[in-house]
Design brief:
Number of domains: 2
Structural class: alpha/beta
Largest sheet: 8 strands, mixed
CATH superfamily of the largest domain: Bordetella uptake gene, domain 1
Number of helices: 11
């Protein structure tokens, strides 16, 4: 290509870049111009779905547009994440997901859900809440803490424990406990939090790793007993329940955060607008109370906080998956 033919091409590229640069602020000023969709990568009725509907209800009047929730389950949250990653990056299609999305790429077959790269193909907005995880037991098991459980597990090798599925954060917690406590437990994977709770409440499995978002009502009613919280510190939702570390079992720290994401390339001004609106919503007493009643601790903050969560969880769970040979089906 000679100089004569290159000049028009260079000019075209410069004009294209200038047009894109001018389009971003204009888009931010008109956002939102239509219905905003929050994609939830899990079936209706679970914790992520309920939380998304809480946010949608409060966000709609603040944006001046309808906000709807669509469920796109599959591939450990990667199916829904892929839908959002391919959407127009204008802020009208968002993803609300727990940190399962950070784990799934390391336990699913390579290329699952089209090979989405969750750290490159999505833009963090904020982490609106967290749901602490706990090891709970059906009262029929007859244990109330980790010392009693460990003693029982050594007498009865292969004691079953349930989780929301292979490769879930709950599965990780169970395998980490087995390693740290030196006991032999048998993993029983269910297809979701709801079915795993049904199994534990009915005595099909008498041990269960679960997020408090799904189990809190059953704990308060006495149908499930908390043996340990799998956090660095006690949860404000269950201040009387000790952590695993407090009970002498270290390195069993697993929690679940919820992240709100947009497609990569969404203008910074749009990301900032949504971040500010949701952060303001999280200050409202009625929303905070509703979240706490369903086992969610309000968080919020900057997009960088969520970006750090995603990066650190991805690195951590990749290592643990290799060490413990954890895989999903």
């Amino acid at each position: 290509m000679n100089l004569t033919t290159r000049r028009p091409l260079i000019a075209l590229l410069m004009l294209t870049g200038l047009a894109a640069a001018m389009q971003a602020p204009a888009l931010a000023q008109t956002f939102p111009s239509r219905t905003v969709t929050i994609v939830v990568p899990f079936p209706p009725g679970g914790g992520p779905d309920l939380f998304a509907r809480m946010l949608a209800e409060k966000l709609a009047p603040r944006l001046g547009q309808a906000v709807i929730v669509e469920n796109k389950p599959g591939a450990g949250a990667l199916m829904g994440a892929g839908v959002v990653a391919k959407a127009n990056p204008d802020g009208h299609t968002l993803l609300l997901t727990p940190n399962t999305m950070a784990i799934s790429p390391h336990v699913l077959p390579k290329g699952a859900a089209g090979g989405i790269d969750v750290q490159k193909d999505l833009t963090p907005i904020l982490a609106p809440g967290t749901t602490p995880m706990a090891l709970v037991a059906n009262p029929q098991l007859g244990v109330s803490n980790l010392a009693e459980l460990t003693a029982l597990a050594r007498k009865t090798p292969g004691l079953p424990y349930g989780s929301a599925g292979n490769g879930s954060p709950m599965h990780f917690a169970g395998e980490m406990f087995k390693r740290s406590a030196g006991v032999d437990l048998t993993h029983v994977p269910y297809r979701g939090v709801g079915p795993s709770l049904v199994g534990a409440l009915g005595g099909e499995v008498k041990l269960l790793y679960v997020g408090l978002g799904g189990a809190l009502q059953h704990i308060k009613s006495g149908k499930l007993v908390v043996l340990a919280v799998t956090e660095k510190k006690r949860s404000a939702l269950l201040p009387q329940s000790p952590t695993a570390t407090e009970q002498g079992v270290a390195n069993v720290e697993v929690n679940a955060w919820y992240g709100l994401f947009a497609p990569a390339g969404t203008p910074a001004a749009v990301i900032s607008r949504i971040n500010q609106e949701v952060n303001q919503m999280l200050l409202a007493p009625d929303l905070r109370e509703k979240m706490l009643l369903t086992g969610l601790e309000p968080l919020g903050g900057s997009a960088q906080v969520l970006e750090t969560f995603l990066r650190e969880d991805s690195q951590r769970y990749a290592q643990i998956a290799r060490e413990l040979n954890i895989k999903a089906d």
